[in-house]
Amino acid sequence: MRLSPLNQIFERPGPIVTAYLEPGVADATSETSVDLRWRALAEQLVAEGADEPTVDAAGKAVNGQPPGRTAAEGMVVVAAGGEVLFTDSLHGPVGGDHASWAPLPHLAAYVRANADTRRYGVVVVDSSGADFVVRGAPTSGHGESGRGDEGHAQVRGEQRPLHKVRGAGLSNRRMQNAVEETADRNAKLVADNIVRLVESARLSSVLLVGAVEARSRVVHHLPHGVQDLVRTSDRAGSGDVSAEAESALDDAVAEIERLIQDNLVERLRGRMSAGTGVEGAADVLQALRQGAVDTLLLTEEDPGNGTAPEASRRKIAIGTGAAELASDAAELRRLFTAGGTADSDVSISEEALDEALIRAGAASDAVAEVVSAEAGLRDGVGALLRFAPAEQA
């Protein structure tokens, strides 16, 4: 996820309301359920000191959505000064309903839930054509509610001749050649549609399933750049998109995500020796202070309860500027005041590590990626850098 679209929210003076409604299941009680859930959050916010116009504005944003969609997809809303600054649906758990009234918007849970903006396609191919399914995150961008709807399409080429006949006679060989040519033209048609789909739907990967021969023909007609995005599977050879192919896509998406995460961690480890990769809070903070972070790596939420890792919730010191962040107040004063003394007069507050990292990353046009806890990032954070940061005394 590119963080820069969030920067305008961070630039708004606080305090700010951030409220999350956990995604779940829509049913006949959704309207009542969403209303009651919001009322509980609103009462909490007022008790914490949030002004009623801002809480009311956030409430109108929640209640202005179809309750079934809010119940199913969840929602984040950010508001300040009596107006809504940002809303979006969620693509994953956020640790339950929760809200904050704080100097900064709390968007770490949103970023973790919505960091995967990739889309995937499955193509079930046979000699006559193919069926297509697209799944994944929305392509509309930040702040526009709604999930990425699945898209279904079908492409059919020439239907005759497609069946070979037995025998070695001249007429039979001609028929076999005609079948081969028809199947090849149909494969070219499917390949052309895959290329268009990759471009129009901005697919990150394509799973190609069906008969081995049909798959091979299609891959042969794909340009090398698209071939790199294609993975094949022997499952779903029947052409049933809605059953076996969907299951195969689920498996493929999980495998793709694992490969992407492994690649990110491998790149990080490989670049650390060159100084363009760092892990741990202290080194990531230093890189963000200098605008060196290209890709911010956050450890995923706990799959059991959707909460952020404990290491990411530790408090650090922040100033008024996005790059003003340090492990503690004394370090922040030393780095960002003229005198550099521990008792220098500077505006300092405390914020959770991951919230401060996201604010700084948004200001410096960084991208956020979420990696598995199995990666073992120190303090739960790492970064791929644009350049090696200078040492700071």
From TrEMBL:
Task: Quote the Pfam families the UniProt record gives.
Answer: baeRF_family2
- Spans traversing the lipid bilayer: none
* Gene3D superfamilies named in the record: 3.30.1330.30, eRF1 domain 2
Q: Where is this region: Disordered?
A: 135-160
Fetch the InterPro entries from UniProt: Bact_RF_family2, eFR1_2_sf, Ribosomal_eL30-like_sf
Biased amino acid composition, Basic and acidic residues: 144-160
Name recorded for this polypeptide: Peptide chain release factor 1 (ERF1)
